[in-house]
Model the fold of this input.
Amino acid sequence: MSLMHGYLVGLTLFMISSKWSKAIQAHMFRAEQLARNSICNSRHGCAIYRRNTPMGLGWNKDKTHPAAIACYSQCIHAELAAILSMSEEQLEGCDAYIARIMRSKNEALGMSRPCRICMQMFRRAKLRKIYYTNRSGNWTMEKI
Ligand SMILES: [Zn+2]
Done:
């Protein structure tokens, strides 16, 4: 009985301490799963949502793409991979979730704030917010 009580108290505390809604947590999880598809050393995944509808999904890739050659030296960033399946008008008002999964450190989350070029791309397309994993392995949010 006391074990159950402790569990429930723990669960309640967890729910109160979590600052993200269930839907946002699900979108974050989606971005983390996408990052696992990457075969690059640094694995990033990006999920772009309009409210709760996934609009574009991607992960970073080594191969080049005509749209990437002008911007990136080596690979297509997850953010670009995600928006390649969308039109630029579709991006307006969307939120992007970008995760990095480390190969070492038991697949801990790593820094995944969009680079300068991806950030410019998002600003131009009028995204609302970006959520990304940070250096301490937590999710953080920035308004664009
Ligand atoms: Zn980038």
